[in-house]
Amino acid sequence: MRIFWAVLSRDLRLSLRHGADTLAALLFFLVTASLFPLAIGPAPDTLGRIAPGIVWVCALLAALLPLDRLFGADLEDGSLDLLLLSGLPAAAVAAAKAASHWLVTGLPLLLAAGPVAVMLRMPPDGIPALLAGLLLGSVLMSLFGTTGASIVLGARRGGVLLPLLVLPLITPVLIFGAAAADAAANGLSPRPHLLLLGAMLSAALPLCPLAAGAGLRAAVE
Fold first, then answer.
1. Which of 23, 69, 80, 95 could form a disulfide with 209 if both were Cys (CB 3.0 to 4.6 A apart)?
2. In the chain, where does DSSP find H-type helix?
Protein backbone atom coordinates (compact mmCIF):
# COMPACT_ATOMS: atom_id res chain seq x y z
CA MET A 1 0.00 0.00 0.00
CA ARG A 2 2.92 2.36 0.65
CA ILE A 3 4.06 2.05 -2.96
CA PHE A 4 0.48 2.46 -4.20
CA TRP A 5 0.05 5.73 -2.30
CA ALA A 6 3.45 6.89 -3.53
CA VAL A 7 2.42 6.30 -7.16
CA LEU A 8 -0.93 8.03 -6.59
CA SER A 9 0.66 11.05 -4.90
CA ARG A 10 3.24 11.28 -7.71
CA ASP A 11 0.49 11.41 -10.34
CA LEU A 12 -1.44 14.00 -8.35
CA ARG A 13 1.63 16.22 -8.04
CA LEU A 14 2.30 15.93 -11.77
CA SER A 15 -1.33 16.77 -12.53
CA LEU A 16 -1.22 19.83 -10.30
CA ARG A 17 2.06 20.92 -11.89
CA HIS A 18 0.54 20.56 -15.36
CA GLY A 19 -2.99 21.69 -14.60
CA ALA A 20 -3.82 22.61 -18.19
CA ASP A 21 -5.39 19.20 -18.86
CA THR A 22 -7.76 19.50 -15.91
CA LEU A 23 -8.63 23.08 -16.78
CA ALA A 24 -9.20 22.15 -20.42
CA ALA A 25 -11.56 19.30 -19.46
CA LEU A 26 -13.51 21.55 -17.08
CA LEU A 27 -13.77 24.41 -19.58
CA PHE A 28 -14.80 21.98 -22.31
CA PHE A 29 -17.60 20.71 -20.05
CA LEU A 30 -18.84 24.20 -19.24
CA VAL A 31 -18.59 25.60 -22.76
CA THR A 32 -20.21 22.57 -24.41
CA ALA A 33 -23.11 22.58 -21.96
CA SER A 34 -23.56 26.32 -22.55
CA LEU A 35 -23.99 25.78 -26.28
CA PHE A 36 -27.16 23.70 -25.94
CA PRO A 37 -29.43 26.59 -24.82
CA LEU A 38 -28.17 28.59 -27.80
CA ALA A 39 -28.97 25.78 -30.24
CA ILE A 40 -32.22 24.50 -28.74
CA GLY A 41 -33.64 27.70 -27.31
CA PRO A 42 -34.07 29.05 -23.78
CA ALA A 43 -37.50 27.49 -23.13
CA PRO A 44 -37.29 26.20 -19.52
CA ASP A 45 -39.53 23.16 -20.13
CA THR A 46 -37.45 21.97 -23.08
CA LEU A 47 -34.10 22.51 -21.39
CA GLY A 48 -35.23 20.97 -18.11
CA ARG A 49 -36.46 17.85 -19.87
CA ILE A 50 -33.18 17.17 -21.67
CA ALA A 51 -30.81 18.59 -19.02
CA PRO A 52 -29.77 15.18 -17.58
CA GLY A 53 -28.71 13.94 -21.00
CA ILE A 54 -26.82 17.16 -21.73
CA VAL A 55 -24.88 17.02 -18.46
CA TRP A 56 -24.01 13.35 -18.89
CA VAL A 57 -22.88 13.62 -22.51
CA CYS A 58 -20.76 16.70 -21.81
CA ALA A 59 -19.19 15.10 -18.73
CA LEU A 60 -18.42 11.94 -20.69
CA LEU A 61 -16.73 13.78 -23.52
CA ALA A 62 -14.79 16.00 -21.12
CA ALA A 63 -13.53 12.98 -19.17
CA LEU A 64 -12.09 11.52 -22.38
CA LEU A 65 -9.81 14.49 -23.05
CA PRO A 66 -6.97 13.70 -20.57
CA LEU A 67 -6.95 9.94 -21.25
CA ASP A 68 -4.61 10.16 -24.21
CA ARG A 69 -1.76 11.30 -21.91
CA LEU A 70 -2.64 9.07 -18.96
CA PHE A 71 0.11 6.56 -19.73
CA GLY A 72 1.68 8.17 -22.82
CA ALA A 73 4.02 10.53 -20.95
CA ASP A 74 5.24 7.75 -18.67
CA LEU A 75 5.89 5.49 -21.64
CA GLU A 76 7.85 8.17 -23.48
CA ASP A 77 10.22 9.06 -20.62
CA GLY A 78 10.65 5.52 -19.29
CA SER A 79 8.76 6.10 -16.05
CA LEU A 80 6.30 3.33 -16.88
CA ASP A 81 9.08 0.72 -16.87
CA LEU A 82 10.21 1.93 -13.45
CA LEU A 83 6.67 1.83 -12.10
CA LEU A 84 6.25 -1.77 -13.25
CA LEU A 85 9.62 -2.66 -11.66
CA SER A 86 8.77 -0.99 -8.35
CA GLY A 87 7.30 -4.16 -6.89
CA LEU A 88 3.74 -2.97 -7.37
CA PRO A 89 1.59 -5.24 -9.57
CA ALA A 90 0.65 -3.82 -12.95
CA ALA A 91 -3.02 -3.92 -11.95
CA ALA A 92 -2.27 -1.77 -8.89
CA VAL A 93 -0.34 0.74 -11.04
CA ALA A 94 -3.40 0.96 -13.31
CA ALA A 95 -5.69 1.38 -10.28
CA ALA A 96 -3.54 4.26 -9.02
CA LYS A 97 -3.75 5.88 -12.46
CA ALA A 98 -7.53 5.48 -12.50
CA ALA A 99 -7.80 7.00 -9.01
CA SER A 100 -5.66 9.99 -10.02
CA HIS A 101 -7.77 10.49 -13.17
CA TRP A 102 -10.95 10.54 -11.11
CA LEU A 103 -9.53 12.92 -8.48
CA VAL A 104 -8.12 15.31 -11.08
CA THR A 105 -10.86 15.12 -13.74
CA GLY A 106 -13.93 13.27 -12.48
CA LEU A 107 -14.26 15.11 -9.17
CA PRO A 108 -14.07 18.64 -10.69
CA LEU A 109 -16.65 17.63 -13.31
CA LEU A 110 -18.90 16.31 -10.54
CA LEU A 111 -18.62 19.59 -8.64
CA ALA A 112 -19.39 21.59 -11.77
CA ALA A 113 -22.39 19.45 -12.73
CA GLY A 114 -24.71 20.98 -10.11
CA PRO A 115 -24.39 24.61 -11.31
CA VAL A 116 -24.65 23.45 -14.93
CA ALA A 117 -27.86 21.55 -14.14
CA VAL A 118 -29.32 24.68 -12.52
CA MET A 119 -28.29 26.74 -15.56
CA LEU A 120 -30.14 24.27 -17.80
CA ARG A 121 -33.32 24.70 -15.72
CA MET A 122 -33.33 21.09 -14.50
CA PRO A 123 -36.07 20.45 -11.89
CA PRO A 124 -34.57 20.65 -8.37
CA ASP A 125 -35.93 17.19 -7.46
CA GLY A 126 -33.74 15.57 -10.10
CA ILE A 127 -30.42 17.24 -9.21
CA PRO A 128 -29.55 14.95 -6.22
CA ALA A 129 -30.16 11.85 -8.38
CA LEU A 130 -28.09 13.41 -11.17
CA LEU A 131 -25.15 13.99 -8.83
CA ALA A 132 -25.48 10.54 -7.25
CA GLY A 133 -25.43 8.94 -10.69
CA LEU A 134 -22.47 11.06 -11.75
CA LEU A 135 -20.58 10.06 -8.60
CA LEU A 136 -20.85 6.40 -9.59
CA GLY A 137 -20.59 7.06 -13.31
CA SER A 138 -17.48 9.23 -13.09
CA VAL A 139 -15.62 6.44 -11.31
CA LEU A 140 -16.74 4.04 -14.03
CA MET A 141 -15.56 6.50 -16.68
CA SER A 142 -12.12 6.60 -15.06
CA LEU A 143 -11.92 2.81 -14.82
CA PHE A 144 -13.06 2.18 -18.40
CA GLY A 145 -10.93 5.05 -19.67
CA THR A 146 -7.83 3.71 -17.92
CA THR A 147 -8.44 0.29 -19.42
CA GLY A 148 -8.86 1.74 -22.91
CA ALA A 149 -5.78 3.95 -22.54
CA SER A 150 -3.65 0.96 -21.57
CA ILE A 151 -4.90 -1.13 -24.49
CA VAL A 152 -4.06 1.50 -27.14
CA LEU A 153 -0.78 2.46 -25.45
CA GLY A 154 1.98 2.55 -28.01
CA ALA A 155 -0.41 1.98 -30.93
CA ARG A 156 -0.34 4.19 -33.99
CA ARG A 157 -3.11 6.81 -33.82
CA GLY A 158 -3.99 5.69 -30.31
CA GLY A 159 -5.75 8.99 -29.69
CA VAL A 160 -8.22 8.15 -32.46
CA LEU A 161 -8.72 4.56 -31.33
CA LEU A 162 -9.25 5.43 -27.68
CA PRO A 163 -12.71 7.09 -27.97
CA LEU A 164 -13.87 4.35 -30.33
CA LEU A 165 -12.90 1.77 -27.72
CA VAL A 166 -14.17 3.54 -24.62
CA LEU A 167 -17.47 5.04 -25.82
CA PRO A 168 -19.28 1.69 -26.32
CA LEU A 169 -18.27 0.65 -22.79
CA ILE A 170 -19.52 3.91 -21.30
CA THR A 171 -22.87 3.89 -23.16
CA PRO A 172 -24.75 1.80 -20.52
CA VAL A 173 -23.42 4.13 -17.81
CA LEU A 174 -24.76 7.11 -19.76
CA ILE A 175 -28.16 5.46 -20.23
CA PHE A 176 -28.70 4.48 -16.58
CA GLY A 177 -27.26 7.72 -15.20
CA ALA A 178 -29.47 9.96 -17.33
CA ALA A 179 -32.48 7.70 -16.65
CA ALA A 180 -31.98 8.02 -12.86
CA ALA A 181 -32.02 11.82 -13.02
CA ASP A 182 -34.97 11.85 -15.42
CA ALA A 183 -36.95 9.50 -13.17
CA ALA A 184 -36.34 11.67 -10.10
CA ALA A 185 -37.29 14.81 -12.00
CA ASN A 186 -40.61 13.19 -12.96
CA GLY A 187 -41.45 12.04 -9.43
CA LEU A 188 -40.33 8.42 -9.86
CA SER A 189 -37.71 6.51 -7.91
CA PRO A 190 -34.15 6.62 -9.30
CA ARG A 191 -33.15 3.67 -7.10
CA PRO A 192 -33.26 0.93 -9.81
CA HIS A 193 -30.99 2.90 -12.14
CA LEU A 194 -28.56 3.81 -9.36
CA LEU A 195 -28.43 0.19 -8.22
CA LEU A 196 -27.54 -0.88 -11.76
CA LEU A 197 -24.74 1.70 -11.79
CA GLY A 198 -23.56 0.38 -8.44
CA ALA A 199 -23.57 -3.18 -9.74
CA MET A 200 -21.53 -2.13 -12.77
CA LEU A 201 -19.06 -0.34 -10.50
CA SER A 202 -18.74 -3.41 -8.28
CA ALA A 203 -17.81 -5.49 -11.31
CA ALA A 204 -15.51 -2.87 -12.84
CA LEU A 205 -13.47 -2.17 -9.68
CA PRO A 206 -11.64 -5.54 -9.72
CA LEU A 207 -11.81 -6.30 -13.46
CA CYS A 208 -10.74 -3.02 -15.08
CA PRO A 209 -7.39 -2.72 -13.23
CA LEU A 210 -6.60 -6.33 -14.15
CA ALA A 211 -7.34 -5.68 -17.83
CA ALA A 212 -5.43 -2.39 -17.73
CA GLY A 213 -2.46 -4.08 -16.06
CA ALA A 214 -2.34 -6.68 -18.81
CA GLY A 215 -2.36 -3.87 -21.37
CA LEU A 216 0.53 -2.14 -19.62
CA ARG A 217 2.64 -5.29 -19.53
CA ALA A 218 1.97 -5.84 -23.24
CA ALA A 219 2.95 -2.26 -24.06
CA VAL A 220 6.36 -2.41 -22.36
CA GLU A 221 7.33 -5.86 -23.64
1. 95
2. 2-17, 20-40, 44-64, 72-77, 79-84, 90-101, 107-119, 127-151, 158-185, 191-220
DSSP SS3 for 70 = coil
User: For residues 25 and 45, what is the distance between their CA atoms, to the nearest angstrom?
Assistant: 28
Determine whether 175 is exposed, middle or buried from the number of CB atoms within 10 Å of its CB (0-12, 13-18, 19+): middle
Distance CA 128, CA 163 (A): 29
Distance of CA 169 to the CA centre of its chain: 12
Distance, CA of 211 to CA of 34 (rounded, Å): 36
- pLDDT, tens only, 35-65: 988 888 878 888 888 899 999 999 999 998 8
pLDDT in tens, 124-164: 889 999 999 999 999 999 999 999 888 888 667 666 788 88
Q: How far apart are CA 74 and CA 194, in angstroms?
A: 35
Contact (Cβ atoms closer than 8 angstroms) between residue 197 and residue 137: yes
